[in-house]
Amino acid sequence: MTAAIAGLGMTEMGKIYGRTPTQLAVEAISRAAEDAGLGLADIDGLYVNPGVKNDTDLRLQSSLQMRHTRLLATIQGFGSSAGQMVQYAAMAIDAGMAEVVACVYADAPLKEGKRAGAAYPGQARAMEGVGSLPFAAGLKAAPERYAVAARRHMETYGTTSEQLGAVAVAARQWAAMNPAAQMREPMTLEDHQSSRMIADPLRLLDCCLVSNGAVAIIVTSAERAATLRQPPVHVWGWGQGHPGYVNRRDSEFGLVTGAAQSGADALSMAGVGVEEIGVRELYDCFTYTTLITLEDYGFCAKGEGGEFVASGAIAPGGSHPTNTGGGELSSFYMWGMTPLSEAVIQARGQGGERQVADHDLVMVSGNGGVLDFHSTLILSPHPKTR
């Protein structure tokens, strides 16, 4: 495997109105190419994550005026898509299918004059029989379904709302040092505990932001990346895990996620142990997902995630710096591109005030659906030697 991330492009994030996801995607890819020191004509591969509403598709190629595309596809793994796109781009480059692959995610769910909560309404899929029971019981959107998972973890292991709050506070402390973060004002545990309930036990400050914007990266061979403008971010390992939860008596839903499988595979491929990871960029659509991903990756024992995050381990100055840009809870929400973009910044050593000193190995997670789909990457500023 010889792939590296050579370019990163990000648009302005948040309440950015009047632009379509395609327009935002074009800007992000253009910025990523410029960041790498390449032109759009140098890109011969394009992976598009179409988002939950399929707002961006293969026609993005025409919008970019790409004329010599050798590789073109949409990748839909929901929140795990970013990690999957990097994996498939690395494999395609290794196979000689393309030399320079752009991967992009764009979204514009926020509408001027409408509340953020209306951005992602529950998707009314056709259901019948036993499969329709969760919907009939009110589990119509992500907060309600993740609330069930979080509550099961709490009932099984004694995890508390205050421990979930520690994840939110840590994310905000990191975001305060990130000029690109949407939410930088200080937050206390009391603020978390007094925020309104969204879906018991998840409060408002347990939930991610909603953002308009786009993020793109450029993947190429390590050899070519070494000749470009930015320090290469080498892809050491990857994995995927898709548990396929069903409503059955012995289901591990809420207790174990696909991170257990994808994380182990990625670490094995990279040839490193979890204790060697210096930076963690985890998919945090809710505070609970940070906590359980830490457990499933092995940074703490199963069931001890609550005590682990409450100890300050993941906050600035802690033993396990995590979501160093503020994550989806406080920085911006671009599905798996949120943790991936911060991983690239940290691996390059360009994090400024929030830069982690030990950034030789960065672990990145993606989580899609309701714990249904998972991807993991191991990135490094150094070429793979193991």
What do you see in this structure?
32% of the residues lie in helices and 17% in strands. The protein has helices at 21-36, 60-63, 81-94, 133-136, 142-157, 161-175, 189-194, 222-225, 259-270, 287-297, 305-310, 327-331, 337-348, and strands at 3-10, 45-49, 71-74, 100-107, 197-199, 202-203, 213-221, 233-241, 279-281, 362-368, 373-380. The model has no long low-confidence stretch (mean pLDDT 94). It has 13 helices and eleven strands. The chain is α/β, with parallel strands linked by helices. The protein has a nine-stranded mixed sheet. Strands 5-6 form a two-stranded antiparallel sheet.
Distance between the termini: 11 Å
Report the biggest beta sheet as strand number plus sense, adding barrel if it closes: 9 strands, mixed
Shape: globular
How many strands in all?
11
- Radius of gyration, CA atoms, in whole angstroms: 20 Å
Mean pLDDT: 94
What order do the SSEs take from the amino end to the carboxyl end, as H and E? EHEHEHEHHHHEEEHEHEHHHHEE
